[in-house]
Design goal:
The protein is mainly alpha-helical. The protein has one domain. It is built from six helices and two strands, in the order αααβαααβ. Strands 1-2 form a two-stranded parallel ribbon. Helix 1 runs antiparallel to helix 2 and helix 2 runs antiparallel to helix 3.
């Protein structure tokens, strides 16, 4: 894995997504980026995008794809989104025009 490229792609997609991801997700993902937790970053980013049906552009999807495929084979129990990359990519909410940034992140759905 090219760590510099991974870091640049991860920062680019997080910057591009902005407040379309809840602030707590952004904080966690940036912590993973800064601490070199590449697998956690790729897996949790994909999971957050799926969970909230976050609208993303084709360019953002391509960056997510690059992050998911930068990680080698993984255990499905530890990194389920990386393990099932193709299904995850097909399920992302790719739109031609994402919504304009809002002053506050969308509320999270209550967990089970």
């Amino acid at each position: 894995m090219d760590i510099e490229r991974f870091g640049a792609d991860a920062a680019a997609v997080l910057d591009s997504l902005g407040d379309r991801l809840p602030a707590d997700d952004q904080d966690s993902l940036r912590t993973y980026l800064w601490t070199g937790e590449w697998g956690l970053l790729a897996d949790e980013l994909a999971a957050a995008l799926l969970e909230d049906h976050t609208p993303i552009t084709g360019t953002e999807r391509d960056l997510v794809r690059d992050l998911l495929f930068a990680i080698g084979p993984v255990d499905a129990g530890i990194h389920p989104c990386i393990h099932d990359r193709e299904r995850v990519l097909a399920a992302l909410n790719v739109v031609s025009d994402p919504p304009a940034p809002s002053p506050s992140p969308p509320p999270r759905s209550p967990g089970p």
